[in-house]
Amino acid sequence: MYDRVFQPIRVAGVEIPNRIVRAAHGTGLGWVDQGNDLMAYHSARARGGVGLIVLEHGGTHPSTSSLWPFYDESIIEGCRRFSAAVHEHGTKVFVQITHRGSSAPNPLGQPLSASDVPNPWIGLVPRPLRQVEIDEIVRGFADAATNAQRGGIDGVELHGAHGYLIGQFLSPATNHRTDHYGGSVTNRARLLTEILDAVRDRVGPDYPVGVRLSADDLIDGGLRADDTAEIVEIVDDRIDFLDVSLGSYYRWHHQLATMEQPLGYELPTSEIVTQVCSKPTIVTGRIMTVEHAERIIESGIADMVSMVRALIADPDLVRKAREGREDEIRPCIGTSQGCVGQAQTTGRLGCVVNAAVGHEAHEPLVELKVARPRKVLIAGGGPAGMEAARIAALRGHDVELHEMSGRLGGQVAIAATAPHRADFGAITRWLEGELDRLGVKVHLRSAVDDDVVRASGAEVVVAATGSVPRRDGFQVRRPARPFEGHDLPHVYTSWDVFGHGGRAVIGETAVVFDDTGRFDALAVADLLVDQGVAMTFASAYDSLGANVNLPVGTVAGLREKLFEGDVTFMPNMHIERIIDGGIVLGHEGTRHTRELAADTVVVVSHNEPQQGLADLLVDLGVEVHTVGDAAGRVTLQHAIQDATRVGRAL
Asked: Of 226, 335, 531, 564, which residue is the least packed, with the fewest Cβ within 10 Å?
């Protein structure tokens, strides 16, 4: 099974045990001198069977901000400890050596780049590099590769993708030079070839040296796949492997590939580039299963396949697939809010579906059995209840779960019916399978009250009773005064729109009012756009998805889709009142109001936690824990983290 994926491959003088790669990505975890978190995170993926790990952002020069100064010999001892930890499991490790150019502040002063083209990420105008500085940076790459080699790292990847310094020279959109580093493709590739030659001169012929390139910049006047293929032909005899990605900071969300993008979305452009390379190639881009990786290798698109977010969600993915236990693989649902989104906003990555991510040094990766099993009753079959039940069962407790409706999944099941959101349902389907595998007794259409708790003999009750939309005219910025008209017949909640607990009648014109800044209102808007509705999206916030982690990456794809339709966005609004055939909105902080005609008004406000059961059981003498939306949590990630914490405490 999966004969191609599990076939070793040789890259220069290094044999990689299988074809699954965990490409470089940000973690926010400190270098090994600052603790064990980084080693524990990567070691978990190595122990899980991945063939190659590419370590993130090794800095090549003091003029670039980077996590770790690979240009300095001080890095070597830490590299030795890190590589030993990964090698213990048979996995090979490369490091991606990088100069970020204009895409990050320069610790020494003005950012540096090919030309004086500001990067949209930081907005600073860079200074074009002088020849003496180019020569110094070339030596810095060679120093970084040398230190990696001395530290036991198995190979290096030059980061020429995503609009970093090498990419800034390669792309005609950011390289406006008139010297021998600008103009023709050969000239624009000169910095890359000089770095490759300098690195090769230092590390010798058998040490793997490769490059990561974006097949397409996805910006006007930038590189297209045919251009990148021409660059590959120039460097083919200098590299040992090629790693192909997509995009740049100008359309950064295409690197994250949230649910709007199909699985394997990068492959059509990547294939144009990989086909001209004579060396082993790597591709990436929403590849979530080993079966998909096998088909890619079989097709000849690439020799190796990167599965980053899938391996974040389940570090044991490769081992489980090899052992024929694919049903046990925890699925990535592709929101990017817990991994990249959290890493960029808090400085440390996590995962929406796996609470242990980033905490592998401290959290148990295998649940420990309790000395005295107890009878545990879970009230509620949403993700929080299911995760609490799973953890409790793994710990050896006798667990039964009661769900009022006829299906498991809770609000995730509702969210999964939105356009391009079906992947949400993967996590609750997996949890349902795990409950069955672990022998958890599940009762559907079963409401929990004190009589049910007494009859069950439960010593512990976990109240995962969820939340429901408010219909009382509440809005966050007007908490003391409900707005009038909330009970008019053309006013709906997001649940009504998706047919849960009601049925919205959608007219030709609609206003969606977003009082949360999260994804719920965006999903409603997406559905209405698909139905051709002329829509005004009014928000209490100043941007779409303002409270979603890293909206510039996680919301941007959907934002582009919405504005392809008939959508008007109105920021910083509140509802004055809803009237027959319309709505009156107010501009926050002013006395100005706008009356809009609308056949349909959808108000997406904060839900009301259902805490009645927990309150009822306080006097029963039963240990009660409240998790998920019932405890005021507002995201799937918070619900799963909450449930994991409680499950481990039982």
From this structure: 564
**Residues 457 and 475 placed together within one structural domain of the fold:** no
Q: Which residues of 588-598 are buried (b: 16+ CB within 10 A; e: fewer)?
A: eeeeeeeebeb
The DSSP result for 522-578, as a single string, is HHHHHHHHHTT-EEEEEESSSSTTTTSSSHHHHTHHHHHHHHHSSEEEE-SEEEEEE
Q: Are residues 631 and 493 in the same domain?
A: no
Structure confidence at residue 559 (pLDDT): 85
Strand ranges (E), 265-397 = 281-283, 304-306, 375-379
The pLDDT value given to residue 415: 85
What gap in Å lies between CA 132 and CA 138, rounded to an integer? Answer: 10
The strand pair at 375-379 and 304-306 is best described as: unpaired
Coil, helix or strand at residue 516 = coil
User: Are 174 and 204 part of one and the same domain?
Assistant: yes
Please identify every residue annotated as catalytic: 164
User: What pLDDT was estimated at residue 326?
Assistant: 95
The pLDDT of residue 620: 80
Note whether 297 and 334 are within 8 A (CB): no
Residues 515 and 593 in one domain: yes
In a domain, 342, yes or no: yes
Q: Is residue 1 part of a domain?
A: no
Question: 356 lies in a domain?
Answer: no
* DSSP codes of every residue in 4-47: TTTS-EEETTEEESSSEEE------PPPGGG-SHHHHHHHHHHH
Q: Name the one residue in this structure whose structure tokens are 């040094």.
A: 361
Supply the pLDDT for residue 253: 64
Sheet of 582-587: strands edge to edge? 573-579, 582-587, 593-597
Packing angle between helix 383-394 and helix 636-649, nearest 10 degrees? Answer: 30
What's the CATH code of the domain at 132?
3.20.20.70
Dist. CA 248–CA 215, nearest whole Å: 10
Q: How many CB atoms lie within 10 A of CB 383?
A: 31
What pLDDT shows up at residue 403?
97
Domain count of the chain?
3
Q: Do 539 and 579 fall into the same domain?
A: yes
Q: Residue 182 is encoded by which pair of tokens?
A: 């600008």
Same structural domain, 440 and 511: no
Its domain, for residue 539, covers 469-608
Q: Does 225 lie in the same domain as 90? A: yes
DSSP β-bridge partners for residue 106: 109
User: Within 189-289, where are the H helices?
Assistant: 190-203, 225-235, 253-256, 267-274
Taking the CA atoms of the chain, what radius of gyration do you get in angstroms? Answer: 27
Our CA angle for 104, 106, 110, nearest 5°, is 110
Rounded-to-integer distance, Cα 390 and Cα 549, Å: 27
User: What separation in angstroms does the CA of 195 have from each of 184, 190, 201?
Assistant: 18, 9, 10
- Positions of the chain with pLDDT under 70: 252-257, 341, 343-344, 364-365
Q: Are residues 509 and 639 in the same domain?
A: no
